[in-house]
Amino acid sequence: MTVSDPVVETVVATLSRSATEIRQGLVGRRGAVDEENPSGETQVEADIWADELLAERLSAIDGISQYASEEREAIIDCGGDAASTDGYTVAVDPLDGSSNLTSNNAMGTIVGVYDAPLPARGEDLVAAAYVLYGPITTMLLATEDTVSEYELTGGERRRIREDVTLPDDPVVYGFGGRVPDWTDTFTEYAREIETELKLRYGGAMIGDVNQVVTYGGIFGYPGLESRPEGKLRLQFEGSPIGYIIERAGGRSSNGEQSLLTVEPSEGIHERTPVFVGNEPLIDRLETQLS
Ligand code: AHG
Questions:
Q1: Where are the alpha helices (DSSP H) in the chain?
Q2: Cys-Cys with 65: which of 28, 87, 94, 217 at CB 3.0–4.6 Å?
Q3: Cβ(98) – ligand 1 distance below 6 Å
Q4: What are the sequence ranges of the domains in the chain?
């Protein structure tokens, strides 16, 4: 089952092939390097290696005009037959949750395909996918048509679910940041949710979001007293994951509005509070925070 848009299909096929190599390449690349990413976070060798691998391959695709990554300051102009104002652009978190590499826990790769120059709004997405490096390597892909889940083995992808939607009855929740650093209004909301759902928080957004997709619930990394903009990046995490969850029948929010409607104003590394999950839970959150 290929994607109808040939450029998106090539991106997805490239991601599927690369994911197998990325997973195998994690071995021996767990060490921290004396570098920080543009968000000021310490990088591990695998962050840089996965980014270089994806940059080379995704930039070479005809029809891709820009490549941007959480791990690099500037946007790459891919040139080729698409000027930076034509063609699709890709924004990538090469290794989401890379701090989990030290503890050998789940991590992921996130790719957003935008039909607009970067930085772009989530509404400009035409596709988004995440790869989950769990016991099994899987990929969840959202396009304008549907949301599909694949198992990735040997560089190929095998579809295991189609028309994926969030279960109606929520089961799990996971909220990032330190509790003493939460705002009072978010703390009130979290206290309610804690009495209703089961805690599932693993420190890598993709692992936690996949729990929400599988069981229903809510994942959030709120704005904090010390950092009102939160930790996660709009372009590389918030918008692509928000797109996937909304295509799967859920909702996304920055606490006030859908992440897909947020106008980037501070460049490609802009941070945002992120909430995704079942619509009633997100609606309640926005009411609580308003
Ligand atoms: P990193 O890639 O630096 O490990 O950060 C991962 C992100 C996101 O995947 C996760 O939800 C969040 O950071 C976890 O942050 P905390 O460590 O503050 O919980």
A1: 6-25, 45-59, 100-103, 184-196, 205-215, 239-247, 279-289
A2: 87
A3: yes
A4: 6-161, 172-289
Q: Establish whether residue 236 lines the binding site of ligand 1, counting it when its CB lies within 6 angstroms of any ligand atom.
A: no
> Letter for the amino acid at 80?
G
Atom of ligand 1 nearest to the CA of 41: 3
Q: At what angle do helices 205-215 and 239-247 cross, to 10 degrees?
A: 10
Is the domain covering 172-289 a CATH 3.40.190.80 domain?
yes
CA of 271 to the centre of ligand 1 (A): 13
In CATH, what is the architecture of 6-161?
A: 2-Layer Sandwich (3.30)
CB 268 within 8 A of CB 91: yes
Distance 97 CA to ligand 1 centre (A): 5
Distance of CA 241 to the CA centre of its chain: 4
pTM given for the model: 0.95
Scan for tokens 């060490």, then name that residue: 31
Give the span between the Cα atoms of 283 and 286, in whole angstroms.
Answer: 5
- What whole-number distance in Å separates Cα of residue 207 and Cα of residue 129? 13
Atom of ligand 1 nearest to the CA of 177: 18
Give 184-234 pLDDT, tens digit per residue.
Answer: 999 999 999 999 999 999 999 999 999 999 999 999 999 999 999 999 999
Which tens digit of pLDDT belongs to each residue from 136-153?
Answer: 999 999 999 899 999 998
- Measured from the Cα of 95, ligand 1's closest atom is 2
